[in-house]
Amino acid sequence: MSILEMFQLNGKNALVTGSSRGLGAAIALALAEAGANVGCHGKSSQDAISGRICRLGKKSFYFSGDIADPTTHSSLIEKTITEFGSIDILVNNAGTIRRAPAAAFPQDYWDELIAVNLTAVFRLSQLAGQNMLDRGATGKILNIASLLSFQGGINVPAYAAAKGGVAQLTKALANEWAAKGINVNAIAPGYMATDNTEALRNDPDRSRQILERIPAGRWGEPGDVAGAALFLCSSASDYIHGHVMLVDGGWMGR
Question: Which one of the listed residues 62, 109, 159, 191 is annotated catalytic?
């Protein structure tokens, strides 16, 4: 197999959660452009991505559901298998953030963020992994972690706790499934120009402080993550297991 062929996903069936916009949309399109059929998911009823994937000549669908609802997890995996016949790639991208000082952090914020950013990642990975193991098939599971998998942040205790958990869950699943041909890895994006960072980008002082620390000198864009995601979902990464890849413009090396 040539190096270019290693990046091709022809015949693969993927699911990308939280793919109606932002990082998830960029990742879903990248996988489709590489040849995969891609199921898309979002919390809203609006979908602009699955149609674009179909126009690329690949199969797609859009599933609207709240990832905090446990019933959504099994429904998503079942929908993917019903539509495509199997699930070969899972990208756990869906996430949310709430900001408040730790001393006043509301319980409902905590419960929501742990449910969306950590519990859903485990349950979807578990369900997809079961299908791959039952079929005796190789597969790729890619989790979206964060710089706050390594750092504590400010006013985001639940988000930091969940994303720290995502990094450790990635390693735990890789330890069990690597020998079975299932790669479990994660990407830790830096400061990206997405909905989750809108509050930071709209704060002139905080935005300036962030940009001053990023060696690349700019906020990341969804497309900056798409290439890394394609690599970790393709055969080019077959010997990479339990890795959390930074895509941060050099932030952590500063």
Answer: 159
